[in-house]
Amino acid sequence: MSFECRRNPLKTIGGYGADIIKCLSRGTQTGMAALHLNRLIFSMRMLTTGLVAPTTVGALALVEHEGKIVLVRQSYAPGWRLPGGGAKHGEPPQVAVMRELQEEIGLISSSEPELFGVYVNRAWPAVNLVVLYRVAGARYAFKPNWEIREATLADPAAPPQGVTDPTRRRLAEWAARATCANAESDFARKVATNQRDRATDRPRLNVLRSMEKQGLYW
Q1: pLDDT (tens digit per residue) in 176-198
Q2: How far is residue 135 from each of residues 76, 160, 193, measured CA to CA in Å?
Q3: Which helix (H) or strand (E) segment is 204 a member of?
Q4: Are 97 and 27 in contact (CB under 8 A)?
Q5: What is the DSSP string of 37-65?
Q6: What predicted TM-score, i.e. pTM, was given to this entire model?
Q7: CATH of domain 55-155
Q8: Closest to 123 in 3D by CA, of 164, 181, 76, 64
Q9: Every domain range in the chain assigned CATH 3.90.79.10
Q10: Residue-wise pLDDT tens digits, 88-99
């Protein structure tokens, strides 16, 4: 049995340098002990980071019903908003969003959630990631509850009065994507049938593509 030890300075909890002896071995228990030690140090660093700078994940949805988007009004926050909420510990966002929709608007059936975008919410003290899904073909039976007082169907091109700024931005993105998708289909049809106007069709499509770009912040 042979092994080699070399000193490897690593950062530990709190940022203090520590001279950790990392042993690399072949067929010895020393190497395994060093591996477990490194894993323990990493786990403790991740735990400390989570306590100092926690990260939360919100799962929200653009719920489509007959060409409009479902908005809700919460009992504890002003304005019309997109339905959804926080993911539980260990819960995937796509599972969380469907659970929230069942709880908030009484979702009965829909297509599978399709990822629309991931955003950073700078209004929260912690790191808050908002995962937004598109849920098409929704059928629901809303009943007011302690959390959600009202629900309405909104035209993305003409949101109701009192809609929150983040919701207004997401509705605009949804409308831009829908317009661009229609323009893409029309452009492909014209190319296939040799009806494309080179002077106007391509520039118009490029403008629409630039308009549909997703924002980074919620």
Answers
A1: 887 665 555 555 655 556 655 55
A2: 25, 20, 33
A3: helix 201-211
A4: no
A5: HHHHHHHHHHHHHHHHS-EEEEEEEEEEE
A6: 0.67
A7: 3.90.79.10
A8: 164
A9: 55-155
A10: 989 999 999 999
